[in-house]
UniProtKB/TrEMBL annotation:
It comes from Staphylococcus kloosii. One of its GO terms (molecular function) is succinate-semialdehyde dehydrogenase (NAD+) activity. Belongs to the aldehyde dehydrogenase family. Keywords: NAD, Oxidoreductase. PROSITE patterns: ALDEHYDE_DEHYDR_CYS, ALDEHYDE_DEHYDR_GLU. PANTHER family: SUCCINATE-SEMIALDEHYDE DEHYDROGENASE, MITOCHONDRIAL (PTHR43353:SF5). Residues 3-454 form the Aldehyde dehydrogenase domain. GO terms for biological process: gamma-aminobutyric acid catabolic process. The active site is at 231. This is NAD-dependent succinate-semialdehyde dehydrogenase.
Length: 459
């Protein structure tokens, strides 16, 4: 059986070798998850909640160890990785509570001799496919609501970052979850996708990743009409209007744009700034961006780690070169951007950005901040919406009418108003258009793991 080498993106050294799960074993694992579902579905909500709380306790107790794994296999700076573990655990804690709030209802019947009850039931075995950019949080925000709802779950973590998942699943077993209620497989996206979409016991697919892969999964899942939640690509606009607090907007741009070295689906991808303040904003942004410490995530004080691999580096360099060719002013020379070598890139601001640049139209997943000036807010909204994506959008304004207009008109599922970090376990995360469907987090995030059944009783 072939082996998977897990690499450290900061050094390209092999951290660990793992056996791929064979296709037969993937099928067998799904079968076992189906067996486990027959038991787990009958466990009462309070016990499911208690197990999730115990899992959360163990995650808190192992925060340093899990964060280190995230940094080693994903490159994220250690302090940020610790933040991710806390964020990941907030989903476990939230759904431990939500497990106890899966309510049904009664419906008044239209004849006196009938009663109608509505109940919520777990959908069954869930197949989850998760990305490398949040190796802990994208796991728990799928696993916790699934388990809370009474489902069992088989997870395929990204091949770049399986170690965090393995540790989280071990801790879940230590917390008392039955072994096959929560499990992982080591597989390529293609093998896992084919197994999950074709196995009849899988009743739900949940995926975070690219839009092209999501489309394939949707098509394949349609054959057996499987329920799916898709959290796909983004191209977040960040609009800064003329009445904004510029310093606060700069801070929020840094927080949004450079989180995980720019490798999140909700990173500010395109920054639109009103022409009255664009020079002031860009200068302040550039000073901060050039002050960011780039390096190995294990080193104290690192703020921007490596990109995940050479392919990611090449994509970012291509966007920079394209912007240069179209009149963009890049705040560092290409030599300076790449001087650290390997998967490291020094962050840059691209001023004088134009709408036809690749960086304004392709998800970047890297540390570049393109800034384009606008004069008319309606035009900025039009450009912001002129994309197949609709995951996250941000805006800065201190005028409530402008803010409400932007909230109402931006076609995005997650919006930050004077807020560069809107993600939270208690809020519904997900996109419009080709950014996917379904929501994760909040009360909405457990719904996709539940079926509605009604009972009509003739007395
Ligand atoms: C993502 O980038 O896919 C998730 C980001 C978040 O949850 O904040």
């Amino acid at each position: 059986m072939s082996k998977l080498s897990v690499l450290n993106p900061a050094t390209n050294a092999v951290i660990k070798e793992l056996e791929y799960t064979s296709n037969e074993e993937i099928t067998a694992q799904i079968d076992r998850a189906y067996e486990a579902f027959q038991e787990w579905r009958t466990v009462d909500a309070h016990e499911r909640s208690a197990k999730l709380l115990k899992w959360a306790e163990l995650i808190d107790a192992h925060i340093d160890e899990i964060a280190e794994l995230i940094t080693l296999e994903g490159g994220k700076p250690l302090a940020e990785a610790k933040g991710e573990v806390a964020y990941a655990n907030s989903y476990v804690k939230w759904y431990a509570e939500e497990a106890k709030r899966i309510y049904g209802r009664t419906i008044p019947a239209n004849t006196p001799d009938k009663e109608i009850l509505v109940g919520k039931f777990p959908v069954g075995v869930v197949g989850a496919i998760t990305p490398w950019n949040f190796p802990a949080a994208m796991i728990t925000r799928k696993m916790a609501p699934a388990l809370a709802a009474g489902c069992t779950i088989v997870c395929k973590p990204a091949v770049q970052t399986p170690l965090t998942t393995i540790r989280l699943v071990e801790l879940a077993h230590e917390a008392g979850f039955p072994k096959d209620a929560i499990s992982f497989i080591i597989a390529s996206g293609r093998d896992a996708g084919e197994a999950f979409t074709s196995h009849e016991a899988i009743r739900k697919i949940t995926f975070t990743g690219s839009t092209p892969v999501g489309k394939t999964l949707i098509k394949d899942a349609a054959d057996s009409v499987k329920n799916a939640t898709m959290e796909l690509g983004g191209l977040a606009p960040f609009i800064i209007h003329k009445d904004a607090d510029i310093d606060a907007a700069v801070e929020a741009t840094i927080a949004s744009k450079f989180r995980n070295a720019g490798q999140t689906c909700i990173c500010a991808n395109r920054i639109y700034v009103h022409e009255d303040i664009v020079d002031q904003y860009t200068e302040k942004l550039m000073t901060k961006v050039h002050g960011l410490k780039v390096g190995n995530g294990m080193d104290e004080g690192t703020e921007v780690g490596p990109l995940i691999n050479q392919g990611a580096v090449d994509k970012v360099l291509d966007q920079i070169t394209d912007a240069m060719g179209k009149g963009g002013h890049v705040s560092r020379s290409l030599d300076e951007v790449t001087e650290l070598g390997g998967n490291f890139l020094k962050p840059v601001v691209i001023s004088n950005a134009k709408q036809d640049m690749k960086v304004m139209n392709e998800e970047t997943f890297g540390p570049i901040a393109p800034v384009m000036a606008y004069s008319d807010l309606d035009e900025a909204i039009k450009i912001a919406n002129d994309t197949p994506f609709g995951l996250a959008a941000y805006f800065y304004t201190n005028d409530y009418r402008t803010g409400l207009k932007l909230y109402n008109e931006l076609e995005y599922g997650v919006i930050g108003w004077n807020d560069g970090g809107p993600s939270a376990a208690h809020a519904p995360f997900g996109g419009f258009k080709e950014s996917g469907y379904g929501r994760e987090g909040g009360t909405e995030g457990i719904e996709p793991y539940l079926e509605t059944k009604y009972l009509s009783i003739k007395k």
